[in-house]
Amino acid sequence: MEREDQPKRTRQATPCATRLFLHPQGSDTLPLNEDIFNCLYKNPEATFKLICFPWLGGGSIHFARWGQDTHDSLEVHSLRLPGRESRVEEPFASDISQLVDEVVCALQPVIQDKPFAFFGHRYLISVLKDFGGVSSIW
Predict the structure, then answer these.
(1) CA distance 123 to 125
(2) 3-state class of 53 per DSSP?
(3) pLDDT at 50
(4) Distances 109 to 34, 56, 112, 122 between C-alpha atoms, Å
């Protein structure tokens, strides 16, 4: 926990194009956005995007299914963490900075074209805001 007399922790984000994630198989490739953000019901006509963050230990499917029952103006995306669901072959995240970099880089193309909001676990959203420089409707 930070005290008032301590400076707030900030860091420079590494440009997405120069980052490299090593997968367990040893391939030098970045995970695809579809691996990181689950959007079961794509809606190109949507005017708004809801970006959901599951609780720690949770999966993306709980929120991704919401896209089936939402209004036509909404598209739902849900974070899929390493070591879970289709990313089960990847090791669990052990470095919060690396995880934030991965999420922020995958998030950029998802949110660049339409208004969006974050929904979900407050801690992960706070980390993205503080360390990743990401902000939205709060």
Answers:
(1) 5
(2) strand
(3) 92
(4) 11, 24, 5, 22
Supply the CATH number for residue 44's domain. Answer: 3.40.50.1820
Query: In angstroms, what CA-CA distances link 82 with 19, 43, 107, 136?
Result: 17, 25, 15, 24
- Interacting residues of 130 by C-beta distance below 8 A, sequence separation 6+: 8, 9, 10
Whether residue 113 lies inside any domain: the answer is: yes
Q: Provide the number of structural domains found in the chain.
A: 1
Is 37 a domain residue? yes
Query: pLDDT (tens digit, 9 = 90+) per residue, 85-98?
Result: 888 888 888 887 88
| Whether pTM exceeds 0.70 | no
Task: Please state, in angstroms and rounded to a whole number, the distance separating the CA atoms of residues 23 and 29.
Answer: 7
Q: Is residue 44 part of a domain?
A: yes
Largest CA distance in the chain: 48
12 part of a folded domain: no
22's tokens: 């090593």
Q: What is the span of the domain harbouring residue 90?
A: 33-132
